[in-house]
Write a structure and sequence with these properties.
By secondary structure, this protein is mostly helical. It has a domain of 196 residues. It has 11 helices and 2 strands; from the N terminus they run ααααββααααααα. It is globular, with a radius of gyration of 19 Å. About 2% of the residues have low confidence.
Protein backbone atom coordinates (compact mmCIF):
# COMPACT_ATOMS: atom_id res chain seq x y z
CA UNK A 1 0.00 0.00 0.00
CA UNK A 2 2.89 2.39 0.74
CA UNK A 3 4.37 2.05 -2.76
CA UNK A 4 0.93 2.47 -4.31
CA UNK A 5 0.38 5.65 -2.29
CA UNK A 6 3.77 7.07 -3.25
CA UNK A 7 3.14 6.39 -6.96
CA UNK A 8 -0.27 8.06 -6.68
CA UNK A 9 1.39 11.09 -5.08
CA UNK A 10 4.04 11.21 -7.82
CA UNK A 11 1.41 11.03 -10.56
CA UNK A 12 -0.49 13.92 -8.97
CA UNK A 13 2.75 15.90 -8.59
CA UNK A 14 3.60 15.27 -12.25
CA UNK A 15 0.24 16.60 -13.34
CA UNK A 16 0.66 19.69 -11.16
CA UNK A 17 4.06 20.29 -12.74
CA UNK A 18 2.70 20.14 -16.30
CA UNK A 19 -0.13 22.43 -15.19
CA UNK A 20 2.18 25.00 -13.56
CA UNK A 21 5.31 24.94 -15.73
CA UNK A 22 3.87 27.25 -18.37
CA UNK A 23 2.70 29.68 -15.70
CA UNK A 24 6.22 29.82 -14.27
CA UNK A 25 7.80 30.22 -17.70
CA UNK A 26 5.56 33.13 -18.71
CA UNK A 27 6.16 34.92 -15.44
CA UNK A 28 9.91 34.47 -15.74
CA UNK A 29 10.11 35.83 -19.27
CA UNK A 30 7.28 38.39 -19.37
CA UNK A 31 6.62 39.31 -15.71
CA UNK A 32 2.94 38.45 -16.16
CA UNK A 33 0.78 36.65 -13.61
CA UNK A 34 -1.02 34.80 -16.36
CA UNK A 35 -4.62 34.21 -15.25
CA UNK A 36 -5.43 33.34 -18.88
CA UNK A 37 -3.62 30.04 -18.22
CA UNK A 38 -6.85 28.76 -16.65
CA UNK A 39 -8.87 29.51 -19.77
CA UNK A 40 -6.24 27.95 -22.05
CA UNK A 41 -6.24 24.87 -19.80
CA UNK A 42 -9.98 24.70 -20.35
CA UNK A 43 -9.53 24.84 -24.13
CA UNK A 44 -7.14 21.88 -23.98
CA UNK A 45 -9.51 20.00 -21.69
CA UNK A 46 -12.45 20.24 -24.09
CA UNK A 47 -10.39 19.68 -27.24
CA UNK A 48 -8.96 16.51 -25.70
CA UNK A 49 -12.42 15.36 -24.65
CA UNK A 50 -13.77 15.97 -28.17
CA UNK A 51 -10.93 13.97 -29.73
CA UNK A 52 -11.47 11.11 -27.27
CA UNK A 53 -15.17 11.05 -28.17
CA UNK A 54 -14.11 10.27 -31.74
CA UNK A 55 -12.29 7.17 -30.39
CA UNK A 56 -8.94 8.42 -31.63
CA UNK A 57 -5.72 7.43 -29.81
CA UNK A 58 -4.91 9.31 -26.62
CA UNK A 59 -1.68 10.51 -28.21
CA UNK A 60 -3.76 12.37 -30.81
CA UNK A 61 -5.74 14.00 -27.99
CA UNK A 62 -2.51 15.10 -26.31
CA UNK A 63 -1.19 16.56 -29.56
CA UNK A 64 -4.50 18.33 -30.25
CA UNK A 65 -4.59 19.85 -26.76
CA UNK A 66 -0.97 20.96 -27.05
CA UNK A 67 -1.58 22.65 -30.41
CA UNK A 68 -4.89 24.17 -29.32
CA UNK A 69 -3.28 25.65 -26.22
CA UNK A 70 -0.45 27.11 -28.29
CA UNK A 71 -2.82 28.63 -30.86
CA UNK A 72 -5.07 30.24 -28.24
CA UNK A 73 -2.06 31.56 -26.32
CA UNK A 74 -0.41 33.08 -29.40
CA UNK A 75 -3.68 34.76 -30.38
CA UNK A 76 -4.05 36.21 -26.88
CA UNK A 77 -0.46 37.44 -26.80
CA UNK A 78 -0.45 38.96 -30.30
CA UNK A 79 -3.91 40.52 -30.25
CA UNK A 80 -4.32 41.55 -26.61
CA UNK A 81 -1.06 41.56 -24.67
CA UNK A 82 1.45 42.85 -27.22
CA UNK A 83 -0.02 46.38 -27.28
CA UNK A 84 0.20 46.47 -23.46
CA UNK A 85 3.87 45.58 -22.90
CA UNK A 86 4.49 48.85 -21.04
CA UNK A 87 1.42 48.52 -18.86
CA UNK A 88 1.75 45.53 -16.49
CA UNK A 89 -1.49 46.31 -14.66
CA UNK A 90 -3.44 46.31 -17.93
CA UNK A 91 -1.79 43.01 -18.89
CA UNK A 92 -2.88 41.49 -15.58
CA UNK A 93 -6.47 42.64 -16.05
CA UNK A 94 -6.42 41.41 -19.67
CA UNK A 95 -5.35 37.89 -18.71
CA UNK A 96 -8.04 37.87 -16.03
CA UNK A 97 -10.61 38.94 -18.62
CA UNK A 98 -9.46 36.25 -21.06
CA UNK A 99 -9.90 33.62 -18.36
CA UNK A 100 -13.46 34.76 -17.59
CA UNK A 101 -14.45 35.03 -21.26
CA UNK A 102 -13.13 31.57 -22.14
CA UNK A 103 -14.83 30.11 -19.06
CA UNK A 104 -18.19 31.63 -20.01
CA UNK A 105 -17.74 30.66 -23.68
CA UNK A 106 -17.16 27.00 -22.80
CA UNK A 107 -20.12 27.07 -20.40
CA UNK A 108 -22.35 28.54 -23.14
CA UNK A 109 -21.24 26.07 -25.85
CA UNK A 110 -21.04 22.84 -23.85
CA UNK A 111 -23.27 23.52 -20.85
CA UNK A 112 -22.47 23.33 -17.13
CA UNK A 113 -22.79 19.57 -16.77
CA UNK A 114 -19.80 17.36 -15.96
CA UNK A 115 -18.73 15.13 -18.85
CA UNK A 116 -16.82 11.89 -18.42
CA UNK A 117 -13.61 11.60 -20.42
CA UNK A 118 -13.27 7.82 -20.58
CA UNK A 119 -10.05 6.05 -21.43
CA UNK A 120 -10.07 2.85 -23.45
CA UNK A 121 -7.70 0.09 -24.43
CA UNK A 122 -4.47 -0.38 -22.49
CA UNK A 123 -4.72 3.10 -20.93
CA UNK A 124 -7.77 1.97 -18.99
CA UNK A 125 -5.99 -1.07 -17.55
CA UNK A 126 -4.20 -1.51 -14.25
CA UNK A 127 -0.99 -3.21 -13.21
CA UNK A 128 -0.13 -4.89 -9.94
CA UNK A 129 1.99 -2.77 -7.60
CA UNK A 130 2.67 -4.30 -4.22
CA UNK A 131 -0.20 -6.76 -4.77
CA UNK A 132 -2.58 -3.85 -5.36
CA UNK A 133 -3.94 -2.54 -8.68
CA UNK A 134 -2.49 0.72 -9.99
CA UNK A 135 -3.87 2.55 -13.07
CA UNK A 136 -1.63 2.60 -16.13
CA UNK A 137 -2.81 6.14 -16.84
CA UNK A 138 -1.18 7.40 -13.65
CA UNK A 139 2.13 6.00 -14.88
CA UNK A 140 1.54 8.05 -18.04
CA UNK A 141 1.15 11.12 -15.84
CA UNK A 142 4.48 10.44 -14.13
CA UNK A 143 6.20 9.94 -17.47
CA UNK A 144 4.63 13.10 -18.90
CA UNK A 145 5.92 15.22 -16.03
CA UNK A 146 9.46 13.88 -16.43
CA UNK A 147 9.44 14.38 -20.20
CA UNK A 148 8.18 17.97 -19.89
CA UNK A 149 10.78 18.80 -17.22
CA UNK A 150 13.68 17.37 -19.23
CA UNK A 151 12.35 18.98 -22.41
CA UNK A 152 12.02 22.43 -20.86
CA UNK A 153 15.49 22.30 -19.32
CA UNK A 154 16.88 21.13 -22.65
CA UNK A 155 15.25 24.03 -24.49
CA UNK A 156 16.32 26.62 -21.93
CA UNK A 157 19.90 25.39 -21.57
CA UNK A 158 20.93 24.06 -24.98
CA UNK A 159 19.02 25.96 -27.66
CA UNK A 160 19.41 29.47 -29.08
CA UNK A 161 15.81 30.24 -28.09
CA UNK A 162 16.60 29.23 -24.50
CA UNK A 163 19.75 31.35 -24.51
CA UNK A 164 17.82 34.41 -25.67
CA UNK A 165 15.02 33.77 -23.16
CA UNK A 166 17.45 33.46 -20.25
CA UNK A 167 19.30 36.56 -21.39
CA UNK A 168 16.03 38.45 -21.66
CA UNK A 169 15.11 37.43 -18.12
CA UNK A 170 18.42 38.76 -16.79
CA UNK A 171 18.52 42.03 -18.75
CA UNK A 172 15.90 42.74 -21.39
CA UNK A 173 17.45 46.10 -22.36
CA UNK A 174 20.86 44.59 -23.18
CA UNK A 175 19.22 41.92 -25.33
CA UNK A 176 17.43 44.59 -27.35
CA UNK A 177 20.64 46.66 -27.63
CA UNK A 178 22.35 43.55 -29.05
CA UNK A 179 19.91 43.70 -31.96
CA UNK A 180 17.63 40.86 -30.83
CA UNK A 181 13.91 41.55 -31.23
CA UNK A 182 12.33 40.64 -27.90
CA UNK A 183 8.77 40.44 -29.25
CA UNK A 184 9.07 37.03 -30.98
CA UNK A 185 10.64 35.72 -27.77
CA UNK A 186 7.59 36.84 -25.82
CA UNK A 187 5.31 35.18 -28.36
CA UNK A 188 7.33 31.93 -28.22
CA UNK A 189 7.36 31.89 -24.40
CA UNK A 190 3.65 32.65 -24.12
CA UNK A 191 2.80 30.13 -26.82
CA UNK A 192 4.84 27.41 -25.11
CA UNK A 193 3.20 28.23 -21.78
CA UNK A 194 -0.21 27.94 -23.41
CA UNK A 195 0.73 24.65 -25.09
CA UNK A 196 1.65 23.18 -21.70
CA UNK A 197 -1.64 24.43 -20.23
CA UNK A 198 -3.54 22.77 -23.08
CA UNK A 199 -1.60 19.55 -22.55
CA UNK A 200 -2.42 19.66 -18.83
CA UNK A 201 -6.10 20.02 -19.74
CA UNK A 202 -6.02 16.81 -21.78
CA UNK A 203 -4.26 14.96 -18.95
CA UNK A 204 -6.82 16.21 -16.42
CA UNK A 205 -9.93 14.99 -18.21
CA UNK A 206 -9.67 11.23 -17.56
CA UNK A 207 -9.35 11.53 -13.78
CA UNK A 208 -10.86 14.94 -12.97
CA UNK A 209 -13.78 15.12 -15.39
CA UNK A 210 -14.65 17.70 -18.04
CA UNK A 211 -16.59 20.76 -16.79
CA UNK A 212 -16.48 24.54 -17.37
CA UNK A 213 -15.09 25.55 -13.97
CA UNK A 214 -12.14 23.13 -14.11
CA UNK A 215 -9.78 25.94 -15.12
CA UNK A 216 -10.75 28.03 -12.10
CA UNK A 217 -10.33 25.01 -9.83
CA UNK A 218 -6.82 24.38 -11.14
CA UNK A 219 -5.74 28.05 -11.18
CA UNK A 220 -5.35 28.32 -7.42
CA UNK A 221 -3.40 25.06 -7.23
CA UNK A 222 -1.04 26.12 -10.02
CA UNK A 223 -0.29 29.43 -8.30
CA UNK A 224 0.36 27.61 -5.01
CA UNK A 225 2.81 25.28 -6.77
CA UNK A 226 4.66 28.16 -8.43
CA UNK A 227 4.84 30.20 -5.21
CA UNK A 228 6.21 27.23 -3.26
CA UNK A 229 8.82 26.39 -5.88
CA UNK A 230 9.87 29.97 -6.53
CA UNK A 231 8.46 32.20 -9.23
CA UNK A 232 10.12 31.70 -12.63
CA UNK A 233 12.06 28.53 -11.82
CA UNK A 234 11.26 25.37 -13.78
CA UNK A 235 13.00 23.04 -11.33
CA UNK A 236 11.50 25.02 -8.45
CA UNK A 237 8.07 24.38 -9.98
CA UNK A 238 8.89 20.67 -10.08
CA UNK A 239 9.85 20.73 -6.39
CA UNK A 240 6.71 22.70 -5.54
CA UNK A 241 4.65 20.12 -7.40
CA UNK A 242 6.27 17.33 -5.40
CA UNK A 243 5.51 19.13 -2.12
CA UNK A 244 1.86 19.60 -3.03
CA UNK A 245 1.41 16.19 -4.64
CA UNK A 246 2.94 14.28 -1.73
CA UNK A 247 1.23 16.29 1.02
CA UNK A 248 -2.19 16.22 -0.66
CA UNK A 249 -2.04 12.49 -1.40
CA UNK A 250 -0.72 11.36 1.96
CA UNK A 251 -2.89 13.65 4.10
CA UNK A 252 -5.86 13.03 1.84
CA UNK A 253 -5.45 9.27 2.26
CA UNK A 254 -5.74 9.46 6.03
CA UNK A 255 -7.94 12.57 6.40
CA UNK A 256 -9.80 13.17 3.09
CA UNK A 257 -11.45 16.40 4.27
CA UNK A 258 -8.05 18.06 4.69
CA UNK A 259 -6.73 17.19 1.24
CA UNK A 260 -7.19 20.74 -0.12
CA UNK A 261 -6.49 22.63 3.10
CA UNK A 262 -3.07 21.00 3.36
CA UNK A 263 -2.00 22.70 0.12
CA UNK A 264 -2.36 26.16 1.64
CA UNK A 265 -0.69 25.02 4.86
CA UNK A 266 2.24 23.60 2.88
CA UNK A 267 2.63 26.91 1.07
CA UNK A 268 2.63 28.84 4.35
CA UNK A 269 5.24 26.55 5.91
CA UNK A 270 7.56 26.82 2.90
CA UNK A 271 7.21 30.61 2.74
CA UNK A 272 7.99 30.95 6.44
CA UNK A 273 11.29 29.17 5.83
CA UNK A 274 11.93 30.46 2.30
CA UNK A 275 9.96 33.69 1.63
CA UNK A 276 10.77 33.57 -2.10
CA UNK A 277 10.04 29.85 -2.51
CA UNK A 278 12.33 26.84 -2.60
CA UNK A 279 14.44 28.01 -5.55
CA UNK A 280 13.17 31.58 -5.81
CA UNK A 281 15.37 34.65 -5.79
CA UNK A 282 15.08 37.82 -3.78
CA UNK A 283 13.86 41.13 -5.10
CA UNK A 284 15.78 42.18 -8.17
CA UNK A 285 17.32 38.74 -8.71
CA UNK A 286 15.25 36.73 -11.16
CA UNK A 287 15.80 33.08 -11.82
CA UNK A 288 17.12 32.22 -15.27
CA UNK A 289 15.23 28.92 -15.43
CA UNK A 290 18.56 27.15 -15.64
CA UNK A 291 18.19 25.53 -12.24
Amino acid sequence: MTLNLVLSALSLASFYFVLSAGLSLVFGVMDILNFANAGIFLAGLYVGWDVMRMHLPFGVALAAGFVAGAIVAVMVERLLLAPLYRNPFAQLLTTLGVMLVLNDLVNWVFGPQIQQDNLNGWLAQTISVGHMPFPVFRLILIGSGLVIWVGLLGILRYTRLGLYLRAGVENRVLVELAGIDIRPLFTAAYGLGGALAGLAGVLYGPFGGVYPTAGLDMLVLSFIVVVIGGMASVTGTLLGSLVIGLSESIIGFFVPNLALTVNVLAMLVVLLVRPYGILGKGTGRKDTHAA
